[in-house]
Write a structure and sequence with these properties.
single chain, about 375 residues, alpha+beta, Rossmann fold, 2 domains, about 25% helix, binds adenosine-5'-triphosphate
């Protein structure tokens, strides 16, 4: 089922008398393809959950429309939309067993949709098998780990055979190891079922690792959508470039003059197609090459060996943050040197307008 969002807006009234209203989601347009796993990604408070809850039907939009396929579902109540929702805190019934928790949504099916006891049992077992907790059907949530409880919550969402599966930060309550394991599980389950899945997270690494498509947003506003690698390689603005990547992109104040990109007084790259102007320069950590005649000189503050790679930590007057360059461990950087010199790779270097922070293309 593909999901289409047209000009979707949600304005909350202020929480107190003096405050102003909050545009949690602002004129959002998006098309989510059928059968894909899509992450809504952005910093805390950017409106991801509000957007998800509108798709779910738990919040009603101030303006705009939501379509599932060709059907306008904007005014259809949540229980009739055919969605499954998984929350961060699992929201299981503590006094019910795993079996009863999973079967619970099926008990509410009415009329033609009503299921026999045997059918409910069969569907609950199938969902439990899918998330690999079929051996724990008689346990209560309190007797299970966080990861197992989240699997029960996923099974409970899947048992209804939803057209769209919605997940609100489902991994946030898990420790680091379980997070990794469970996100792989979610990926596997999504592939096996082919259910269009919308997953909310503020963790870019998590989103990059499991999604077919990421949607980056900030302050309720859409910034960019696409395959994770495409968005990483081709960010539309400084915010998106900064939000994706660990370690983060390195930012410098720079200047384009006479077809050259300057950082401080050093001409670090030839850039064609850009007029003379001040710019923001973003260089990915993997965009540096150490060279004795490198064009960018930085003050060396540390060298961290990370096995296959080295992290060169340094400073430059044109940047107010520490610079991290990730280079191959085959390079020899003397930690006692005062300076380190780099050449920068053009395809890992981005220019942004000083005012709008939109990307400026160059060749
Ligand atoms: P987080 O990652 O912290 O959960 P989020 O990106 O999911 O954040 P939302 O929870 O959607 O963000 O909130 C978006 C904005 O809307 C925030 O400024 C929040 O304070 C505000 N907001 C959310 N719900 C309400 C509400 N019921 N009343 C007023 N403001 C609200």
């Amino acid at each position: 089922m593909n999901v289409k969002i047209e000009k979707l807006t949600k304005v909350f009234p202020s929480r107190d008398k003096k405050g102003s209203e909050v545009r949690a989601v602002d004129n959002f347009n998006l098309e989510i393809p059928d059968g894909k796993l899509v992450c809504l990604l952005g910093p805390s408070g950017c409106g991801k959950s509000t957007l998800l809850y509108m798709i779910c039907g738990l919040e009603s939009p101030t303006e705009g429309k939501i379509f599932f396929g060709d059907t306008d579902v904007t005014d259809i109540p949540s229980e009739k939309r055919g969605v499954g929702l998984v929350f961060q805190n699992y929201a299981l019934y503590p006094h019910l067993t795993v079996r009863q928790n999973i079967k619970f949504p099926l008990e509410n099916f009415k009329g033609d949709a009503k299921l026999s006891k045997e059918e409910m049992e069969k569907r609950a077992l199938e969902a439990a098998k899918l998330v690999q907790i079929d051996g724990l059907m008689d346990r209560k949530p309190g007797q299970m780990s966080g990861g197992q409880q989240q699997r029960v919550a996923i099974a409970r969402a899947l048992v209804k055979m939803p057209k769209v599966l919605l997940m609100d930060e489902p991994l946030s309550n898990l420790d680091a190891r379980l997070r990794l394991q469970t996100r792989e599980e979610i990926r596997r389950i999504q592939r096996e079922t082919g259910i269009t899945t919308i997953f909310v997270t503020h963790d870019q690494e998590e989103a990059m690792s499991i999604s077919d498509m990421i949607v980056v947003m900030k302050d309720g506003v859409f910034h960019q959508a696409g395959k994770p690698q495409d968005v990483y390689d081709d960010p539309v603005n400084k915010f998106v470039a900064n939000f994706l990547g660990t370690p983060a992109i390195n930012n410098f104040e720079g200047r384009v003059k006479d077809g050259g990109l300057y950082i401080g007084d050093e001409r670090v790259l030839d850039v064609k197609g850009v007029g003379d102007k001040d710019v923001w320069v973003g260089i990915r950590p993997e965009g540096f090459e150490v060279s004795s005649d490198g064009k960018l000189t930085c003050e060396l503050t540390g060298v961290d060996v990370m096995g296959r790679d080295i992290s060169v930590v340094c400073k430059n007057k044109a940047s107010d943050a520490v610079i991290r360059a990730i280079i191959s461990a085959e390079n020899d950087v003397d930690p006692k040197s005062t300076n380190v010199r780099f050449n920068v790779k053009p395809h890992k270097t981005y220019l942004f307008d000083k005012n709008t922070e939109e990307r400026i293309s160059f060749t």
